[in-house]
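Researcher: Please translate sequence to structure tokens.
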Amino acid sequence: MRPKIYLFGDSITEESFGDGGWGASLANHFSRSVDVVLRGYSGYNTRWAVKVLDKVFPAVEGGDGGDPLAVTVFFGANDACLPDRCSAFQHVPLEEYNHNLISIVSFLKKQWPRTQILLITPPPIDEDGRLRYPYTENPSGQPERTNEAAGAYAKTCVAVARECEIPAVDLWTKMQQFPDWEKACLRDGLHLTQNGNKIVFEEVITKLRDEGLSLEILPVDLPLLTDIDPNDPLKAFQK
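Model: Translation complete:
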């Protein structure tokens, strides 16, 4: 069986198998070595994620080929919704967000002790974009998310990774290093453009490589065409 990499998160993960998505790019990158498995849930926050861990990652999953190589955990964009705005039902206080991330990491470590866990912070927020593309009716005329709030959750995510001794992608900081990031990286002030997806893909690949999970050292599934002798093709399948 091929090893797996699970992608666990909210809509930014759920959409990641779309055209140019970071999950699709990962699946293509590891196409002969790893099965990339999507577990994205649009609108979810860490409070809800903790409640469904047993359903998303049932214990039997670990018995069909060993521990996954890695799990990405990408939550915070919904937790950071402001509590007095139109998406208040998704808001999770910062302290609880911290606790929930630790609970998710602890669950995964207990389930799969050898699996590499990678946290990804929420992206930055373009508040003008959120006003142009509100999730629902917005009579207040104020964005339901702010970049300042997203930054606080991103900082907490990085701190949890440090505490749990696992790597993190600080997407909030990384994206804002690009010129005109609001339009280049975000299509609606929150969700990713193809450029934004490319940044996530490249950051995830870099972090996994830093942890020893590079394509160069992973075995491929079944003989490569270049390893098949044209004069005796079936010989390659006898090993």
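Researcher: Any highlights?
Model: Residues 4-238 form a domain with the Rossmann fold fold (CATH 3.40.50.1110).
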